[in-house]
Specification:
- There is one protein chain.
- The chain is an alpha/beta fold and about 550 residues long.
- About 50% of the residues lie in helices and about 10% in strands.
- It folds into four domains: about 10-170 and about 495-535, Rossmann fold (3-Layer(aba) Sandwich), CATH 3.40.50.720; about 190-275, no CATH class; about 285-395, no CATH class; about 400-490, no CATH class.
- The N and C termini lie far apart (about 65 Å).
- The relative contact order is 0.13.
Length: about 550
């Protein structure tokens, strides 16, 4: 009788996402407490995705009742919910999607809560603010910033969507780039690697083994021969690099003067550039190592900056200008024995690099009055493994983005002048303009059919005024067609746009919670009319 292993229920339930962000990422998600402001279509779509992902708990803040319009664009609601508190109805239905998630609601408008009980928001990891106007968002952002709570602003307005995150600083260790850079150190092999490579005498190997010598070994041997013949200079010109590849090919076995087809030599030729072109030192990582947070390290510094300071010391000393070795090697044509021997060398070197960085961590922790072992080795190891992909994002406040003296007028003017961004930049401007229109007229433009044509010039005048305030006027054109479209939207929240924005918002929330992948650092505008998105650094 064959015994089948018991699959953990949670692992089976979250199988796909565990493959993306791992058990530690899932643990971060399962401890997250989310506050959703307004449970309209956009908010419901966003929270639905997070509930299915397995957050710990959520609280919905919404003072509205379920109206007929909600039934047409919110898939969670049905006729039986008419007249009931919207927060209560959506909470109950979302809890049915994942029994492991705790849900609650507050039947009160966010504006009243912001003014009357700002401390309420301090108990959450992320506040997802949907369908809120600029004036209220500025107050909420101030509360969240002071409390260290992440704020995610999401909006659907007709056929336009907008998203922006606001928090002081976000650090990413596992950015997981699409195209990871391999660092085999072939341009500068350490002694043990060089010794191993030269211990394999190609002439003495049998035919099968000769065809399965890892290309890393072939390149180290070829490079050593080249250096000996060229005064220790790497191949520089096109001709020299071509000659180096010919040198690699000359090592192939021949039959009657014809080279035998050996795949490992073809791999060596394809990867020959790794001898003369070492992996670039990422500019983002260089900026981190030069950050003032390292030079002003203190007891209150986060573990990330202690690790970054230790990494800098390693690069300046033991690393000789190099980042710690990751320790893994790519697939290559090789016998199992040779591949494992090579892999062991890289793994052992990576462990030595981790030990060196860890020693610096202990010294730095001691110097700021913390326990030298406050940061576990596993954390140091993960940091070293991902050293090439570290990222730090510092967000401008919404107040800075919209402030008369602090807005980036040049960036806005440029975006509204470039052919590929002019439409979406104009939509960004008009989203700000409709909020100011609402503040003046207590309604969104186009809310009443009879006033649609009258609202178009009013909205355009407001938009031009915003441009002038931030110094981006200078005859910057505003499309009359887009102004007209914004008025025709009438402030409506369409499910097709809300679903897209909910997907984007939940994805960004997960990035912020797990500290994996690189979140958006600017303002995203989704243009459903043109099926395009733009991210503006404003």
């Amino acid at each position: 009788m064959v015994e089948h292993p018991v699959v953990d229920a949670k692992a089976k339930k979250y199988d796909r996402q565990l493959r993306i962000w791992g058990a530690h990422g899932q643990a971060a998600l399962e401890s997250a407490k989310i506050c959703l402001i307004n449970s309209g279509t956009t908010g419901s779509e966003t929270l639905k995705n997070l509930v299915l992902g397995g957050i710990a708990a959520f609280t919905i803040v919404d003072g509205a009742k379920v109206e007929a319009g909600d039934l047409g664009n919110n898939f969670l609601l049905e006729a039986a919910n008419l007249g009931a508190p919207r927060a209560q109805s959506v909470t109950g239905l979302l809890k049915e999607l994942n029994e492991a998630v705790t849900g609650s609601f507050v039947e009160e408008s966010a504006e009243d809560l912001i003014d009357g009980n700002p401390a309420f928001f301090r108990g959450f990891d992320i506040v997802v603010a949907t369908q809120m106007r600029e004036a209220s968002l500025l107050k909420l952002e101030s509360i969240c910033r002071e409390s260290g709570v992440k704020l995610l602003i999401v909006r659907s307005y007709g056929l336009v969507g907008q998203l922006r995150a606001s928090l002081g600083e976000h650090v990413v260790v596992e950015s997981k780039p699409d195209n990871a850079v391999e660092d085999l150190r072939l341009h500068q092999p350490w002694p043990e690697l060089a010794q191993y490579a030269h211990s394999l005498n190609l002439a003495d190997l049998d035919e099968i083994t000769h065809k399965h010598v890892p290309y890393a070994v072939l390149l180290i041997q070829a490079a050593a021969q080249w250096y000996e013949e060229h005064a220790h200079q790497r191949p520089a010109s096109y001709k020299e690099r071509s000659d180096f590849k010919l040198l690699i090919k000359s090592g192939q076995r021949q039959i009657d003067g014809c080279p035998i087809d050996e795949e490992n030599f073809a791999e060596a030729v394809a990867n020959a550039h790794k001898v003369w072109a070492p992996p670039p030192f990422p500019s983002e990582v260089h900026a981190i190592l030069e950050d003032k947070a390292i030079t002003s390290l203190s007891r209150s510094s986060s573990d990330f900056w202690v690790l970054a300071a230790a990494l800098k010391k390693f690069v300046d000393t033991e690393g000789g200008g190099n980042l710690p070795l990751e320790g893994s090697i790519p697939d290559m044509t090789a016998t199992t024995a040779l591949y494992l021997q090579l892999h062991t060398l890289y793994r052992e070197r990576a462990e030595r690099d981790v030990a060196a960085v860890e020693a610096h961590v202990h010294t730095l922790l001691r110097s700021v009055g913390r326990d030298p072992k406050a940061i576990p080795r596993s954390t140091v190891k993960n940091f070293c493994k991902n050293a090439r992909n570290l990222r730090v994002i510092r967000y401008r406040t919404l107040a800075e983005e919209v402030g008369t003296d602090t807005c980036k007028s040049d960036a806005l003017r440029q975006a509204m002048s470039a052919e590929d961004t002019v439409s979406n930049a104009t939509l960004y401007l008009l989203l700000r303009a409709v909020d100011r229109f609402h503040s003046t007229y207590n309604r969104f433009p186009g809310s009443y059919d009879g006033e649609l044509e009258e609202d178009v010039p009013l909205l355009k005048t407001i938009a031009l005024g915003i441009l002038a305030e931030c110094g981006a006027g200078n005859n910057t054109p505003i499309s009359d067609d887009l102004v007209g479209e914004m008025c025709r939207f009438g402030g409506g929240e369409l499910h097709c746009v809300a679903a897209v924005m909910g997907g984007i918002a939940s994805q960004e929330a997960i990035k912020l919670l797990t500290k994996q992948f690189v979140p958006l650092s600017g303002t995203l505008v989704y243009n459903a009319m043109g099926s395009t998105t733009s991210v503006f650094q404003l």
